[in-house]
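Worked example 2:
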Amino acid sequence: MQRPAIVTRARARILVMFSGDANGTPEWVRALETGDDEGWFGPGSAVWEVHSGIPTVVAGIRALLMQTLHPGAMAGVHDHSRYRDDPLGRLAGTVRWVLTTTFADRAQSQAACAWVSRLHERVHGEYLAADGAVRPYSADDADLIGWVHCVFADAFIGSHETWGGPVPGGSDQYVREWATAGELMGMANPPRSRAELDAAIAAYLPVLRRDDRVDEAVRWLKNPPLGRGVGPAYRVLFAGAVASLPAPYRELLGVRRPWWPAIALTGLALTWMRLLLGAESSSLTYTRRRLERLARDGNA
């Protein structure tokens, strides 16, 4: 049965947001079918379970909110990011890295991490620290790499704990597996349990702060230019991301937990998106084709 035009447009808009392609199958997704090994994780892994779930939609918003609190990371976004001019392009680039690292063979995963690292080489400058000192920053600093890895891991597993199903091995297994991504990006000692992850993020509290740049980024994240078809649903997801954050980080961001049932309504919005997009993502479809080929060839 043919979808109504408004549904087709909404689906295409969402797929462009997350893949850069209205059909959800850009070249990098199709490339997941190629390769010579299972990749870093594979079927049955905690990473596959979490990253193939629809709660990752909220996780992206939650991670970006958290990132803004580190003044070095916020300065890099403010000075070098194209999020105001090309918000969908920046989001699609982040999704590309996450899904390639998750599902591709090891060579493609390493290439994706190297691509991001090359982009980071030109991201540097100075920022005003909480103590009033002017400090240099670079996107490839160990401190910033660690912060970004930790807030992404926290957002993925935190969103899945809120709106997803069981995770093989639980949250500890997810954090332990996803530490591989941190190492690929140059993090020396990524956390390997939920408790270690929580402690690693809390260790940044003395340097986290809110300023005008953070307020600007939060306002933009609350209401990006997504159009009438997707905008209202996005605002529900944003509220869910805020509600799912631990209270100390909401206070730092200057945002309040919505008075209405944001967690429950976000769950309904995610169910709608799952129905709209289909049971399985194109990333998983092409990845399974690679694994089936390897199994036939005896290389899996």
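The mean pLDDT is 85. The longest strand covers residues 124-128.
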